Structures are given as C-alpha cells and as structure tokens.
Model the fold of this input.
Amino acid sequence: MYSDDTVYVGLLVVSFLFSFLFRKVKHKSVKQWMATVYGAIIVLTVSGLHVVHPIICTLVNSILIQIDKRRCHILSFLFSFGYLIFFRMTTYFGIPYPPPHTNLIQMMLTLKLVGLSFEVHDSYLIKLKQKDAKFDAEKKFKMICQPSILEVFHYAFCYIGILTGPYFKYRTYWDLFNHNYWRKATYINLLIKKIRIIPTLVICYLATSWIFPLSEFKNDSFYSSTSLSYRLWYMYSSFFIFRTRLYLGFIFSELICIASGMGAYPEVTDPQSGSGPTKNFESLETEYSVKGEAYNFDCIESIDIMKVETISTVRGATRIWNMTIQYWIAEYVYRRVPIKKLRTLVAFGISALWHGIYTGYYVSLCSVPFYLAVEDIYDRQYRNYADSAGKRILWTFFLYTMKMYQFSFWGCTFQLLHIDLIYKYCQSIYFLPYIVLITMYAISRFNNIRTS
Done:
C-alpha cells in the first residue's frame, strides 16, 4: 500500500503533466469537460464510495444558488460548513470516516461553493442597485452570469486546485475558458523558477522528518529523559518540517495553475491572490492586447516563501501565508462581520472550523488574535518610535524572534491535535509561550501607565 503522502505527491505530479495536454486543447466545451472528468477521476480514485459527499455538497449548493439569489450566500455558508462538520463526524452516525485526501477535497469544495454563492449574491445586488444604469468596467468584471447546475459541477470538480487549492473565484475559472489571457502569458520561465525550489524542500523535509519525527511527542521518554531546551528545540524542528511540507503543496498547486493557464491576467490590472484584477478593468474588455503587454499569475499565488521566512511580525506573515485562502477569509468572513472588534477572532475561528474539529486547530488558530493585539503594541509604540537605527534593529530582531517562537508553538499544537497531548507538551515546557505573552502584555501596560 502506498502512503498518503506518496499518493498525494503522485496525483500532483500527474496533474501538473496533464496540464500541458490540457493547455493544447482550444475548444471551450471540450476543454471544460476535460478538466471536469479528470477532476472527477481524482475524487473517485482517492474517495471511492465517499465520493457521495462532494456530490451532495455540490448538488445542494447549486440548487440554493438557483432558488434564492438574495440569501443563497447565507444558506450556502450554513449548509456547507454544517456539512463539513458532519463529514468529520460520520463515525458517530455509523458511517465510515472518509479518507484524508477526501477531507482535502471537501475543504476546498466548501470554499469554492460558498465563494460562488457570494459571487452570485453580490452580482444580484449590483444588478438590483443599478437596474437602469450603465455598468462601469469594474462592476462588469465583478458580476457573473447565473451558473446552471451543470456549470456549478464543472467549477466544483475542475481538477485544478481540487486537492490543494489554490482558491480561485468562479469568475477566474470562467475567464480561463472564455478569454485568451492564458495564451498570451509567458509561463515556462516562471515554471522553471518554481521547480528549482522543489529539490531543496524535498531534501529538507525528508532529512528533518527522519531525524525529528512528530511521533516523538507521544513517547513518555521524550518528557522524562530530555531537557527543557531540547523540548523547546523540538517545537522549532516540528514546525520546520510542517512548513516545508506545506511549501511543497503550495508550489505544486501553483505549478498546475500556471501550466494550465488558470489565473493569467494583464499586469496592468494589478491581479491579487484570490481576487484577480483590482484596477484598470477597461483593459479586460478587449481581446486585443497592446504590443508588449505583460501578463502574470499573481491571482493564484499562494505564498512567497522568502517573505514569509524573513518578515518580522506574525501579522505580516499571516497576510502572506496561503494568500488565496486568506483572501477568501477576508472577503467572505472578516469584512462581513458587522462588529469590527470581533472580526479577527471570528475569522480565525472560522479558519479553525474549516481545518477540522480537533482541539489543536482551535488552540493554535484562536490564540493568534490575542498575540496580534500584543504584537501591535510593540510594533507601533516601540519599534516605529525607536529614536535610533540600532534600537529599531533590536526591536525588529525581538519581534522576529517572537514570531518564530509563537509560530513554532502554534504549529506544534496544530499538529498534535488532541487536548491530552497538547496539555502534556505545554506542561513539559511550563506553559512558557503563554507566560511570555502575558509578560509582554503586562510590561506594555506598565509602560503605558508610567508614561501617562
């Protein structure tokens, strides 16, 4: 039997190679069916009978979109996340638990279908507000035609991003088949640039996962026979393994998009991750490109590894980590929460729910907003107002150290999943991450009182 990681990487490699064949097909309908059939084959291969879950979720969402454009975004959100919870608790209902890869498929499907319902709803509102007015180029781009049930299935089961993402809007999917941006975008050099990173990441992942296996956290000897410094170091090493594995997934998902042509737009429109074009929408209304016009694939970029590794703050890193998913959370959760003070906590709470029902997801992700509040104080009040370059460098170094420290701890609890393992590890390191955070907050409060 092949391991889950072997199947996962194998499907990504085959999908990448398939994309070159997919790119050569010019007929829109053939191309669309090709993407859907291959996507359905992937889902069926890894899911078996559990393929029924993605089918049910897609069918119900497509019906909701047809019957109520005014409230379909709310109904879709409630149903899709409710079904995601049921999907992860099937054993309580006497139904076998789905395979891990089906979980990845269901996660991405949830985002795509909820995002589509928001696009349908927002398009409906634009038409309602400007019934007799002429639409400008930006509103034209943001509007989508009402997709049929079949078109929803095409979007949901498109092989691009079906396992790993990235998240792309229905509008981006529609543009791939109805515009020629992908034909004009140069992509070979970009593919080579990203492929060059893969061998280094693979070596780092294999070497470190062999030396520092995650299973060590479950061994009693790890807690009884090792020092505090080693247990803290293991936190860093486990996070290193965790992020190299995710980096590989992100890069492969981007390679598949680039090779297939998904997410190509003119640079002049300033495409952003997940969102697509953000300005100069007039240039999208013509099929004729200006001589020498540049195109890029920023719309499907998930991560900039160097920026994530070198940026000094947690807030900065969260904004450029898995950027297409961050766009979805910002656009369809954060900005829609009416109480501004609760937006960050709700956004991270939904992110935790999306990842799963294990305690580790909530312990890690729901801790981030509290650290951000403290970090902002140190970033804005101390680093930004440092009276010399030396002090500013020291504050930057301090914030970077704390970023890696907190991220490593969150990454550790995220992977441990179960509350008993998390508590056992936290106890072994004397709850230092929480003590450090409380101490940082207490010092900032004391300095504010003293200053005032």
The beta strands are 265-266, 295-296. The chain has a mean pLDDT of 91. DSSP finds 22 helices and two strands in the chain.
